[in-house]
Design brief:
The protein is α+β, with helices and mostly antiparallel strands. 39% of the residues lie in helices and 14% in strands. Strands 1-2-3 form a 3-stranded antiparallel β-sheet. Strands 6-9-10 form a 3-stranded antiparallel β-sheet, covered by helices on one side.
Length: 519
C-alpha cells in the first residue's frame, strides 16, 4: 500500500486537498478535503431580505450569477411574489445566467482542464505568424511558464499541429470569455457580481439597443462554440479515448433544472425549465426531485455530529475542528441517503432519460462521432463533452429568448416585505444543483442556508461509509507514477470543483469562535 497527497489541487476554484491510497498502482481509497472555512450564511442573519442576492454572490467570483438567481427565487417565494415575476424579468434573469454558463464552460475546458491534455511548451519553438500562437510564444520567452507550469508530465498525445491549434484556441477563448462577460453586463450591469437579477424580476427593462448588442456578441460565441470548442473537445476525446472508461463516479445523477420557461411559482417537480429537473438512479430510471429527500451528513466533516441528518432548511453548523475521523470542511449532501453527481453530465443524463429531443440528438450525434456507446458518458470525457454540448444548446436557445423581450413592458414585481416568510430557490448552476433556503422574522432574515454543487460532488464519506462522487470516481484508477499522478487531477478537474462555494459554512460565535481562532 502507498499513499500520496496533492495539496492543493490547482487550476480549480478554491483550495482542495486529495489523499490517495494505492495498492499495486490502483486507487483503493481517496479522501477529498475542503481546507478552508468561511461564513456567508451567518453574515445574512438580521439583514434585509433584498440584500440576499447581492451578498450570496460573494460566495464565489467565478460562479456568482447562479447564486443571485437561486437567492432571488428564494426571496421571491418568501415575499409571496413568485407568481408576479413579469416575462421580461424572467427572460432577463435567464439571459444573465446563461451568459455566465457559456463563459464558465469555456473557462473550464480551455483554462482549467485543457492544459492536462495540451502541451503548451511546444509553442516555444513556433516560427509562424499566427498572432495567438505568437503571443503565447512570447509569453513563454519571459522564462516563467506560469500559469502553464508547474504541471504533471508525460502523457501529451495530441499531434503537434493539433496541439498548436489548441494553444491558439486557448488564447482565443480568453477573448470569447470577455464577450460573454460583456453580454452578461448588458442586462446585469457588471461581472462579476452582477446587479440585474433582483427579487421580483430584473433591475431594469430591455431596450432595442441592448437586444441588438446582446445578439451580436451571442452570435460570435455561437460560432466559437460550434467551430472551435466542440471540435477541440472531440479532438481531445479521440486522442484520449481511454478516458471514456475512467472516472465514472457514483452512477446516480441529480438536476434541479434551470432557465424557467413559464410560470415561476409552481413546485420544482412540475416547473417548466429549458434544462429539465429530475433524478436518475443507478438503474437509469428517471423520477421527479423530492426536496424533502435531501439531507446533509457530517460524519467525516469537521462539524458536530448533532448537525447531521437534517434537511438544509433546518440545518445547523457547529464546528468541531479536532473531530476524530473527520477530514473536510465540506458537509456531505445525500438524496434518499445516497450520494448523487450533479453538473452538466447530470443535466444531459436527466434530459436524455426524459427523452428531450434536442439533448438526445446532440448526445447521439457526439457518441456516433466518437464511435462510443452511452456508457462512455459516465466518464472524464463524458463530463467535458456534456459541457460543450450544453454550451451549444444554451447559446442557440438564447437567440429565441432575447427576441422575446418586450421593451416598455413590466420587468419587476412590486417588492413588499412581510413580517414572516419562508422560501427556497433550487436551480442548476454551471457546476450543478444549487439550493438556497430562507426564513424571515420581523421582516428580516432569521435563517439562511446554501447547499452548493461542489458540496455534492466533493463531499466526504458519510456514516454509511459511502464516499462522495469525486472520491468514488477515483476508485479503481490505475496510476502509472505516484510522483506524477496526472490521472488523478484529470478526474478531479472533469467535475470542475468550486471549493470557494463548497466551504461557505456558518461562522461560529462566542466561545466556539474563540476556540476556532486558537486552533
Amino acid at each position: 500500500m502507498a499513499t500520496f497527497s496533492i495539496d492543493p489541487v490547482t487550476r480549480i476554484e478554491g483550495h482542495l486537498r486529495v489523499e490517495v491510497i494505492t495498492d499495486g498502482g490502483e486507487v483503493k481509497e481517496a479522501r477529498c478535503s475542503g481546507t478552508l472555512y468561511r461564513g456567508f450564511e451567518q453574515i445574512l442573519i438580521g439583514r434585509h431580505p433584498l440584500d440576499a442576492p447581492i451578498i450570496t454572490q460573494r460566495v464565489c467570483g467565478v460562479c456568482p450569477t447562479v447564486h443571485a438567481t437561486a437567492s432571488a427565487q428564494c426571496v421571491d417565494a418568501a415575499l409571496g411574489i413568485a407568481a408576479n415575476v413579469p416575462d421580461n424579468g424572467r427572460i432577463i434573469r435567464n439571459l444573465i445566467l446563461a451568459s455566465n454558463y457559456i463563459q464558465s464552460h469555456i473557462l473550464h475546458f480551455y483554462h482549467l482542464a485543457a492544459l492536462d491534455y495540451v502541451d503548451v511548451t511546444k509553442v516555444a519553438k513556433y516560427r509562424g505568424s499566427d498572432p495567438a500562437l505568437a503571443s503565447v510564444r512570447d509569453f513563454i520567452k519571459r522564462g516563467e511558464l506560469a500559469p502553464f507550469a508547474p504541471r504533471y508530465e508525460g502523457d501529451y498525445r495530441l499531434p503537434d499541429a493539433v496541439d498548436r491549434e489548441a494553444v491558439a484556441h486557448y488564447a482565443q477563448a480568453l477573448d470569447m470569455r470577455r464577450r460573454a462577460h460583456e453580454m452578461l453586463a448588458i442586462f446585469g450591469g457588471k461581472m462579476p457580481h452582477q446587479v440585474g437579477i433582483v427579487p421580483g424580476g430584473s433591475a431594469t427593462g430591455p431596450n432595442v439597443d441592448q437586444i441588438a448588442s446582446f445578439l451580436s456578441r451571442l452570435n460570435e460565441l455561437r460560432d466559437f462554440i460550434s467551430a472551435v470548442y466542440l471540435p477541440d473537445v472531440i479532438a481531445v476525446a479521440k486522442a484520449y479515448s481511454d478516458y471514456a472508461a475512467i472516472g465514472g463516479g457514483v452512477g446516480r445523477w441529480l438536476s434541479y433544472g434551470i432557465f424557467d420557461m413559464g410560470t415561476t411559482d409552481v413546485e420544482l417537480a412540475v416547473r417548466k425549465r429549458f434544462l429539465s429537473q429530475g433524478v436518475v438512479d443507478s438503474n437509469l430510471q428517471v423520477s421527479e426531485v423530492n426536496e424533502s429527500a435531501i439531507t446533509e451528513e457530517v460524519q467525516s466533516s469537521w462539524y458536530s455530529d448533532a448537525c447531521g441528518g437534517k434537511h438544509p432548511s433546518a440545518g445547523d453548523t457547529v464546528p468541531e475542528p479536532d473531530k476524530a475521523g473527520a477530514y473536510s470542511w465540506l458537509k456531505a449532501p445525500r438524496y434518499n441517503g445516497k450520494p448523487y453527481e450533479v453538473g452538466p453530465l447530470a443535466r444531459m443524463v436527466v434530459g436524455y432519460a426524459r427523452g428531450v429531443e434536442a439533448i438526445k440528438a446532440a448526445v447521439d450525434g457526439l457518441l456516433a462521432e466518437l464511435k462510443a456507446g452511452p456508457g462512455a458518458l459516465n466518464s472524464v470525457l463524458g463530463r467535458h463533452a456534456a459541457r460543450a454540448l450544453e454550451a451549444k444548446l444554451v447559446a442557440d436557445a438564447m437567440v429565441d429568448w432575447v427576441t422575446q423581450l418586450k421593451p416598455g413592458e413590466p420587468f419587476c414585481a412590486e417588492q413588499v416585505i412581510p413580517e414572516t416568510g419562508q422560501g427556497a430557490g433550487m436551480v442548476d448552476g454551471p457546476r450543478g444543483a444549487l439550493g438556497h433556503w430562507i426564513s424571515l422574522e420581523n421582516g428580516r432574515i432569521a435563517k439562511y442556508q446554501l447547499v452548493v454543487p461542489t458540496t455534492w460532488n466533493g463531499s466526504p464519506a458519510d456514516g454509511a461509509g459511502q464516499p462522495g462522487p469525486i472520491e468514488q470516481a477515483l476508485l479503481g484508477t490505475k496510476i502509472r507514477d505516484a510522483a506524477n499522478p496526472f490521472e488523478v487531477v484529470r478526474i478531479i478537474r472533469s467535475f470542475d470543483p468550486c471549493l470557494a462555494c463548497a466551504v461557505h459554512m456558518i461562522t461560529p460565535t462566542g466561545t466556539e469562535l474563540a476556540r476556532f481562532q486558537v486552533l
